Queue: 2 jobs
Job 1
Amino acid sequence: MLEPGNNDELPPIPGKRYFTIGEVSELCAVKPHVLRYWEQEFPQLKPVKRRGNRRYYQRQDVLIIRQIRSLLYDDGFTIGGARQRLTGDQAKEDVSQSQQIIKQLRIELEQVLKILRR
């Protein structure tokens, strides 16, 4: 799971519904070919594929990618170890991801409310 200290080095996730592989690459500091490889290795990672087999990632996918990145690069897990960790901790991660999404939505809604009050 991403530690609060690791979140500071990655840019915040914008309030969009879908992200291209290039955008996710920048948001997670991982090259696109690595993202495509991780899709094969981690069953939790399933971007929507549309016209021309283009990938569109959702916010949940970006959070999972950041988590995978943290496990592999920061914590020193192997691909297999990270896969097991994600599978074993899925319930805890779902709660944490939900909390992150709720926090982000709340911030965005407060910004919209400020704009509407002007």
Job 2
Amino acid sequence: MLSCREATELMSQEQDRPLTLRERVGLRLHVLICAACTNYRQQMSVLRAACRRFGSGGTP
């Protein structure tokens, strides 16, 4: 089982590279049982979308 530190590191890495099957499964299992990491992943998603919007010149 992944620790929260390992899970958040994988969440960050998945923005830059495809995760291996083992990494994806481990991360999915961790997020299913960890509310804090689920919240972190959702926050990362919101920030990523905001950055894309800002980078494309979209209006706030």
